[in-house]
Design goal:
- The chain is of the alpha+beta class and about 725 residues long.
- It has a domain at about 1-45 and about 90-270: putative glycoside hydrolase family protein from bacillus halodurans (Beta-galactosidase, Chain A, domain 5), CATH 2.70.98.
- The chain is about 35% helix and about 25% strand.
- It is built from 18 helices and 28 strands.
- A hairpin with a 4-residue loop joins strand 6 (about 110-120) and strand 7 (about 125-130).
- Helix 12 packs across helix 13 (about 500-520).
C-alpha cells in the first residue's frame, strides 16, 4: 500500500507528505539537488487579538428589523459596518522553512532505475536510483516518539552531502553551533518566535562538519540527518529545545528510530483497512505509478478505480494520523502542509464545513484519538466565545462564526456577506463532542468533559433566537456562502431562519438534552431547550421538490453552488432520513449536480457522503471516480483547487459510509456499495454504539460480517438503492 512515482516532483502538489502531528514535510525527491519543505503546526503570524466590533450589539435590533421587513440591502450595509471585526482578519498559518540539499555521487553519469515512494503502512518516504551502476537510497520519517524528522542516506559508493535551511527574507539569523545548523526568527505581529535546526552523523566512515550555515558530509556511505522546528507556542527557548531534540534523536541508531516510529504509527494505522483488488490485480498495481493510476481512472478503467479507491482510503487515514495527534493543533485547511507565508484562506480553520469535514472520518475510520486536537481547540473557543456572545449579541453561552485560528478567535472573519456573519460555527464544532460520545457510549467521563461546551453553545441560542411567525429563528444569519434572488430581482445573503441553522440547533438541543439525562444534571434546562426545539422551523419542500435552503422558496444565484448546506440534515445529520424529506433531499442533490455542483474537491467529497446516505451505490461510485479523476493531485492531495485537505478526509468518510452506516436503529452493511467494488473486504470500521465491524463480500453480497462490541443492535443488508418512499 504505497504511492509510487518514476521521477522527482517538479511541483509541490507532486511532492510526498510526511508528518508526526506537529511537524510536517514535503519531500520532492531530487537526485543531485533536493528540496524538503518543512512545517511546524504553531508557526502562525500574529498573536491573540480582541477584534470584536463594539457597535455590534447596539445595531443588532435594527439589523433584525430590516431583515424581517425584507430590506435586505440596507441590512447588509449596516451589518458590514457594525459586525465586521476590527481588524477584519484573523491570523495566517505559515511555512517554517525549506532545506536545500546537494548530493555529489562518486561517479558521473545519468541516473537510472529511479523510484520515489510513500509507504502508507510504515509511513516512510523513500527515493532510490542508480548512477554509474552504484545504487543510492534515502528514507525519510516524521517520528512522533522522537519528535523530529529523520533522514537516512545510503549508497553503494561514498557520496558527499551539503544542506542549508532557508526562509526567504522572513527570518532573523542563521548559522551553526556544535555540529548543527540553525535558523531563527519571529513571525511578526506579536506572533511566535521559531527555530529550525538540523544535525547529522556518518555511519561506517566519512566526516560531518559545519561551515557557516551549511551542514556538510564528505565521503560517507551512510548518513543520518535529523531535523526539528520549535516555537514559543510550546517552548520558552525554541532553538535550545530543537537542538536538544535533534541531539537526543541522533544518539539512537536508524533501526531504533525506525522501529519506534513504525510501532507508534502502526498502532493507529493498522486498526482499519480496505481491500478491493484480487491477487492478480494487486500484483499488477504493485509497481504502478500513482499518476498513471489516476490517469487511468479518468479514462474510465474499472480496475484502476478499485486500486485508486483503496489507495485513497489508506492515504486519507495516513494523512489524519500525520497531521492531527493528541498534543498537537488540529488539521488546518491544508492539514499541516503549507508552503506559503500568506496561504489561500490563510490555511486556518474554516468552520462552516471544512474543519468539520476534516474530522468526519476520525470515528468511523477508527482514528478516534486524532480528533483530540479539535476538542482542545473548541474548548479554548468556548472560553473566548463567551466574550463574543456577550459583547456582540448580549447573549449567554459562547458563539463562533465561520473561521477560527490558533488563538481560538471567535469574532467574524472578513467582510464577506455570504459567509462572515454566520453564528453557527461554534455550535457545529461543539456537536463533534457528541459525535465522539455516540461512537463511545461507555465513556461517561468524556461526556462529562463535553457537556459544558455543548451546554454553553446551547445557552447562546436560548438567548439569541427570536420569535417570528410563531417560530424561533436565527437572525441575522446566512446559508453559508450562498446567495438568493428576491422576487424583485435583488440579490441577498443575510436572512432569518436559514434551514441549516435550524437543523444544527435541533441537533445541538437534542444532544444537550440527552447528555443532561445521561449525566443526571440540569433537568430544567433540558426541558426548556426541548420546548424551544419544537418551535424551530421544520424543513420545507419547495417548488422544485427540493429541500428549501431559506424560509422562503427563493431562486438561487448559483443553483450549482459548492455548499449544499440545507442537506446538513442528510449528512452528517439524519433529520432528512424519513419521507417526504428523503426524496426531497435526493431531488436537491440532483438539482445541484445538474447545474454544475461538486466542482470543488471538498464539495465532491460531501456529495459522496450524501449519495451514501441515499443508499445509491452507483452514484457513490460515479462521484468517487470524479473525486479521483478531477479533484485529486498526483500526490493524492485533494484539489479545491488549490490544495485543501478536507476533500481527502470527506472522501474517505464517504467511502466508509458506503460500506457501513449506523445513524439509525441498525448496523447497515454495504448500504451503498458501488458496482465496481463487487468483491472486497473492509476491516475495523467503527459504528455508533461502540461496535467495530469487519465485512467481507463477494459479487456485492456479504459472506462474512463480524461485530465486536457495540450496543447489540441488529444487522441489516441493502443490496440496491431504496425505492422512493421506502425506508426500512
Amino acid at each position: 500500500m504505497r504511492t509510487y512515482y518514476t521521477s522527482p516532483a517538479n511541483d509541490w502538489n507532486k511532492a510526498l507528505p510526511i508528518g508526526n502531528g506537529r511537524l510536517g514535510a514535503m519531500v520532492f525527491g531530487g537526485i543531485r539537488d533536493e528540496r524538503i519543505q518543512f512545517n511546524e503546526d504553531s508557526v502562525w503570524y500574529g498573536g491573540p487579538q480582541n477584534r470584536i466590533n463594539p457597535d455590534a450589539k447596539k445595531y443588532l435590533p435594527e439589523i433584525r428589523r430590516l431583515i424581517f421587513e425584507g430590506k435586505i440591502a440596507e441590512a447588509e450595509r449596516l451589518t458590514v459596518r457594525a459586525f465586521t471585526a476590527l481588524p477584519e482578519t484573523m491570523r495566517p498559518y505559515q511555512t517554517l522553512c525549506d532545506a536545500y540539499i546537494n548530493i555529489r555521487h562518486a561517479r558521473p553519469g545519468e541516473p537510472s532505475d529511479y523510484e520515489r515512494t510513500l509507504d502508507l503502512e510504515c509511513a516512510v518516504a523513500a527515493v532510490s536510483y542508480k548512477i554509474g551502476g552504484a545504487a543510492y537510497r534515502r528514507e525519510i520519517i516524521a517520528s512522533a516518539p522522537a519528535g523530529v524528522i529523520v533522514m537516512r542516506y545510503v549508497g553503494d559508493e561514498p557520496f558527499s552531502f551539503e544542506m542549508r535551511l532557508d526562509r526567504g527574507r522572513y527570518f532573523d539569523s542563521c548559522g551553526s553551533k556544535e555540529g548543527a545548523i540553525w535558523l531563527v526568527g519571529e513571525t511578526g505581529g506579536g506572533g511566535v518566535c521559531f527555530a529550525a535546526a538540523a544535525t547529522a552523523k556518518a555511519v561506517g566512515g566519512g566526516e560531518v562538519y559545519t561551515i557557516g550555515e551549511y551542514l556538510i558530509a564528505r565521503d560517507v556511505k551512510e548518513l543520518i540527518v535529523v531535523f526539528d522546528g520549535e516555537t514559543t507556542f510550546r517552548e520558552k527557548d525554541p532553538l535550545e529545545a530543537a537542538l536538544a531534540k535533534i541531539r537526543a534523536a541522533l544518539e539512537k541508531d536508524w533501526e531504533c528510530l525506525l522501529s519506534e516510529h513504525i510501532a507508534d504509527y502502526g498502532r493507529l494505522y493498522n486498526r482499519a483497512s480496505l481491500s478491493l483488488l484480487s491477487d492478480e490485480e494487486r500484483e499488477k498495481f504493485a509497481s504502478y505509478p500513482t499518476d498513471k493510476l489516476l490517469a487511468d481512472v479518468r479514462e474510465g478503467c474499472a480496475d484502476a478505480m478499485r486500486a485508486a479507491s483503496e489507495l485513497y482510503f489508506a492515504f486519507g487515514r495516513y494523512l489524519l494520523i500525520c497531521c492531527s495527534r493528541p498534543g498537537t493543533l488540529p488539521a488546518t485547511l491544508q492539514g499541516i502542509w503549507n508552503r506559503d507565508f500568506l496561504p489561500p484562506w490563510d490555511s486556518k480553520y474554516t468552520i462552516n464545513i471544512n474543519t468539520e469535514m476534516n474530522y468526519w472520518p476520525a470515528e468511523c475510520c477508527n482514528l478516534s484519538e486524532c480528533a483530540e486536537p479539535l476538542f482542545e481547540l473548541v474548548e479554548r473557543m468556548a472560553e473566548r466565545g463567551k466574550q463574543t456572545a456577550q459583547e456582540m449579541y448580549g447573549c449567554r453561552g459562547f458563539v463562533a462564526h465561520h473561521n477560527t485560528d490558533i488563538w481560538a478567535d471567535t469574532a467574524p472573519q472578513d467582510r464577506y456577506i455570504p459567509g462572515s456573519y454566520w453564528v453557527m460555527g461554534g455550535a457545529w464544532l461543539a456537536l463533534h463532542f457528541w459525535y465522539r460520545y455516540e461512537y463511545n457510549p461507555s465513556d461517561k467521563e468524556f461526556l462529562k468533559r463535553a457537556y459544558p461546551v455543548l451546554k454553553s453553545a446551547a445557552e447562546f441560542f436560548v438567548d439569541f433566537l427570536v420569535e417570528h411567525d410563531g417560530m424561533l429563528v436565527t437572525c441575522p444569519s446566512v446559508s453559508p456562502e450562498n446567495t438568493y434572488i428576491l422576487p424583485s430581482g435583488e440579490r441577498g445573503c443575510l436572512c432569518w431562519g436559514a434551514t441549516m441553522d435550524s437543523m444544527i440547533i435541533y441537533d445541538l438541543f437534542t444532544a444537550v438534552a440527552e447528555s443532561s439525562k445521561i449525566l443526571g444534571v440540569d433537568e430544567d434546562f433540558a426541558e426548556q431547550i426541548i420546548t424551544m426545539r419544537e418551535k424551530l422551523p421544520k424543513p420545507q419542500i419547495g417548488k422544485h421538490g427540493q429541500i428549501m435552503e431559506w424560509p422562503e422558496d427563493y431562486d438561487e444565484a448559483e443553483p450549482g453552488h459548492r455548499h449544499i448546506s440545507h442537506l446538513y440534515g442528510l449528512y452528517p445529520s439524519w433529520q432528512l432520513g424519513k419521507e417526504p424529506y428523503f426524496t426531497a433531499a435526493r431531488k436537491t442533490l440532483e438539482r445541484r449536480l445538474a447545474h454544475g455542483g461538486g466542482h470543488t474537491g471538498w464539495s465532491r467529497a460531501w456529495i459522496i457522503c450524501m449519495w451514501a446516505r441515499l443508499r445509491d451505490g452507483e452514484k457513490v461510485g460515479e462521484n468517487v471516480r470524479l473525486l479521483l479523476g478531477k479533484s485529486t493531485y498526483d500526490n493524492l492531495f485533494d484539489s479545491h483547487p488549490p490544495f485543501q485537505i478536507d476533500g481527502n478526509f470527506g472522501g474517505i468518510a464517504g467511502i466508509a459510509e458506503a460500506l457501513l452506516q449506523s445513524q439509525g436503529e441498525t448496523y447497515d452493511i454495504l448500504p451503498a456499495l458501488p458496482p465496481e467494488w463487487k468483491d472486497g473486504e473492509v476491516y475495523g470500521l467503527r459504528a455508533r454504539g461502540g461496535a467495530e465491524i469487519d465485512i467481507k463480500w463477494k459479487d456485492g453480497v456479504p459472506v462474512s460480517v463480524k461485530v465486536r462490541g457495540g450496543d447489540g443492535r441488529p444487522v441489516t443488508f441493502r443490496s440496491k438503492p431504496l425505492e422512493p418512499g421506502v425506508l426500512n
